[in-house]
Amino acid sequence: MNLPSSSTTLANCTPKLGLLQRNTLGIESYAEQAIVISKSEQIPLLLQDIKAHGLPWQVLGGGSNVVLPSVLPGITLLIDIAGKEVLSSDRTETLIRVGAGEHWHDFVQWTLAQGFPGMENLALIPGTVGASPIQNIGAYGLEVAHFIENVQAFDTEKNGFVTLSNRECEFAYRDSYFKQNPNRFIITQVTFKLPKAWAPKLTYAELAKQFSNQSPTPLEIFNAVCAIRSSKLPDPKVLGNAGSFFQNPIVSEAQCTELANQYPAIVSFPDAVGQRKLAAGWLIDQCGFKGKRIGPVGVYDKQALVLVNYGGGSAQDILGLAKQIQDKVQETFGVQLQIEPNIF
Ligand SMILES: Cc1cc2nc3c(=O)[nH]c(=O)nc-3n(C[C@H](O)[C@H](O)[C@H](O)COP(=O)(O)OP(=O)(O)OC[C@H]3O[C@@H](n4cnc5c(N)ncnc54)[C@H](O)[C@@H]3O)c2cc1C
Asked: Which fold has domain 5-79?
């Protein structure tokens, strides 16, 4: 029988769904119960049912920024809401509303094909559009916050759909209101605002070098970003990973100067006034972890910021290695590394 989507309940869940193909770290995991959410109208009644039964629940997008346990308890909502709609386009900007389940990279590629440039530096980041605001994804000198007009979500505290403006999302470096309030919002759609005025963003050294004395097109930048990323990061289909496993720590100018006196080669970038961002990969590399393997997991040999799963590694293996790295970096540099992926 074809039920209307608004009548989705616990009875529609699939038991014991394997998640090995749904997390890029390649951890063998399964959801006790899982359900595909392809329409936002499915959410209210389902959440009501979940709450009535006192069950735990969580949301999974593309699984590219999570560390999963061997069993995900309760109900796992697999977000698959599709759709891209140009709401308006005038001489100054284009507004586009996108379903949370759309694939991020495909969406970026689509914007360029439609003649709406701007997000080319964010090409090839894995995952879904709906997850992009959670940690305010960023790369090569740009963050998604720059392009988000608002975010539509089901607020499980208010029991209703809400729209959060860009300001209300409280975006910061790899952070947002959603990340600060875990398991409160189920993001259903994101509206992007792409300005018509375009200029290449080439602050990242490798892009600047490649296009010195040139005026690249958005597509040329898109292709360059894809090529650089492919040469530096392991393909999760080949080697399990969740991209950068640690955030770049932000320290005061004073602490950075002190560290630079002791370690003249330390890599840092300007951040907010009076602060600098340290390259976490450099710190980890100096502690001798690059390429190190411990059982089924290890540190990628081309980029110390990436932890990899050679196969059969569990959350415990990954988090055990992460703890060793955090302790050593703390002991050596007096800097605390924060884990970037979400630990379920
Ligand atoms: C090879 C590789 C490279 C990467 N490079 C970058 C990079 O350059 N920059 C960067 O910022 N990140 C990067 N990442 C991390 C990752 O791609 C992003 O964080 C991405 O946004 C995660 O999307 P996802 O759909 O896979 O989310 P998931 O991993 O499924 O989920 C991540 C978190 O978001 C929550 N979530 C997901 N969807 C929703 C929703 N619809 N509503 C509410 N909550 C939701 C989940 O509950 C979880 O807490 C990389 C990852 C990999 C594997």
From this structure: 3.30.43
Query: So what's the pLDDT on residue 1?
Result: 45
All residue ranges of the chain with pLDDT < 50 are 1
Domain boundaries, the chain: 5-79, 84-205, 240-343
The residue contributing the CA closest to ligand 1 atom 4 is 243
CATH fold of 84-205: 3.30.465
Partners of residue 58 on adjacent β-strands = 76
65 CA → ligand 1 middle, Å? 4
Query: Ligand 1 atom closest to Cα of 241?
Result: 53
List the catalytic residues. 174, 244, 340
**Greatest pairwise CA separation for the chain in angstroms:** 71
**Per the structure block, which two tokens stand in for 24?**
């890029």
Range 240-343: architecture per CATH: Alpha-Beta Complex (3.90)
Of the candidates 239, 219, 230, 137, the one whose C-alpha atom is nearest the C-alpha of residue 179 is: 137
69-81 per-position pLDDT tens digit: 999 999 999 999 9
Our answer on whether the CB atom of 127 is closer than 6 Å to any ligand 1 atom is: yes
Asked if the domains 84-205 and 240-343 are classified in one and the same CATH topology, the answer is: no
Query: What is the per-residue pLDDT across 17-33, written as a single tens digit (0 to 9) for each?
Result: 999 999 999 999 999 99
User: How far is residue 310's CA from residue 312's CA, in Å, rounded to a whole number?
Assistant: 7
CA distance 331 to 279: 17
